[in-house]
Amino acid sequence: MAAARFVDRLNEQIGYEFAASQQYIANAVYYERQTLPRLAGFFYGQAVEERNHAMMMVRYLLDADAPVAIPGVTPPEVDFADLVAPVSLALEQERRVSEQIAELMGLAREEGDFLSEQFLQWFLKEQVEEVAMMSSLLAVVQRSADAPGFVEDYLSREHPTGADRTDPTAPPAAGGAL
């Protein structure tokens, strides 16, 4: 069974992942209102991914016969000053989640909870990718703030709609990854 302190913190992390999903929906809605369908679609996809991360954590706790708590989340930010602000917020969020996952890894290691430590390996790799992707997107949005069509073109090339984003090495999600 997973260490009790780890279980408590992973339950907190589930809430952070759901909050990230909600924030990405808010980002997507903002871009959709700006008639930027590629940016909207990108963030709708990110919202599903974050939701699935939470569900992977739920599945792990269920499989480990540990208690599962689904925390409430604070409302997302919905008012943005410009096209750059949602992506800037997303990068901050991904950096914060990276720190949270690293802290979870440290806690698992400190507790000698090797199974939980192994579970988190995928999330560490995922966070490196997420921070890099948001950093690149932020650079593009900052350069193209006055010409958002360039951002839409970038997303069409680098993150095509309908591209298979599944990772066969990802942990299973409770309820299946939707």
Question: Would you summarize the structure shown here?
Answer:
71% of the residues lie in helices and 0% in strands. By secondary structure, the protein is an all-alpha fold.
Give a structural overview.
Helices cover 71% and strands 0% of the residues. By secondary structure, it is an all-alpha fold. It has a single domain, classed as Ferritin (Up-down Bundle), CATH 1.20.1260. The model has no long low-confidence stretch (mean pLDDT 94). Helix 1 (4-33) packs antiparallel against helix 3.
What distance lies between the first and last C-alpha atoms, to the nearest angstrom?
27 Å
Q: What are the segments in which pLDDT stays under 50 over at least 5 consecutive residues?
A: none
User: Helical element count?
Assistant: 5
Determine the structural class based on helices, strands and strand pairing: mainly alpha
The CATH architecture classification is Up-down Bundle
CATH-assigned fold name:
Ferritin
Radius of gyration: 17 Å
The top level CATH class name: Mainly Alpha
Summarize the amount of helix as a percent range.
over 70%
Output the CATH homologous superfamily.
Ferritin, core subunit, four-helix bundle
Overall geometry comes to elongated
| Counted beta strands | 0
Give the biggest beta sheet: none
Topology record:
Layout: H1 4-33, H2 37-63, H3 84-111, H4 114-143, H5 148-158
